[in-house]
Design brief:
By secondary structure, this protein is an all-alpha fold. It has helices at 2-35, 37-65, 71-93, 95-123, 131-150, 152-197. The longest helix has 46 residues, at 152-197. It is extended.
Length: 198
Amino acid sequence: MSQPSTAAKSVFASVRIALAVSGVLALLAGIVLLVWPGKSLAAITGIFAAYLVVAGVVYVGLGIFSGRGGVWARVGHIVLGLLYVVAGVIAFANLQPVGEFLALVVVIFIGISWIVDGVVSLTLLGRDGSRVWTLLYALLSIVAGVVVLFSPLIAGFALWLLFAVSLIALGIVQIVRAVTLGKDGKSSVAASQDDTAV
């Protein structure tokens, strides 16, 4: 009789811990993004630079030690790997400027993708059953993309702020879920014990 309740308690405890840990991590990440935007951008760039170096070493290793493929495939892997390593080292040497450049590229890419999405929506206007909503979506998407392209720094700051605030809100919600799940878990375990007793 106690085995199902012990298993249920264990499951609830594991879920609570996972929710609490993910909530605290999201909350801390959001606070760091808000309080130290430059340092957190540099940290993200550092992670990206480390990825480039590791990927580069892997590609060089594939080119040197792989017996598969022809000479050009192996040379291509080595050249690609060296380019990755050089890019990673340059990024490590200039974390802040590279981070700002990458953020700018991402924001510009978002603006372009919104414009393209709006244009594609306009091409579907004749075939869509909800013409008014499609037209409204297309126009808003194009206008938003143009605004982002003409003011990428403001748009980047707004997206960064939205991301940080979202992480803080999601973290708080996860922590609350972990606390309330514990209360719900106790009542569920008690109910299952009552059912098994009957």
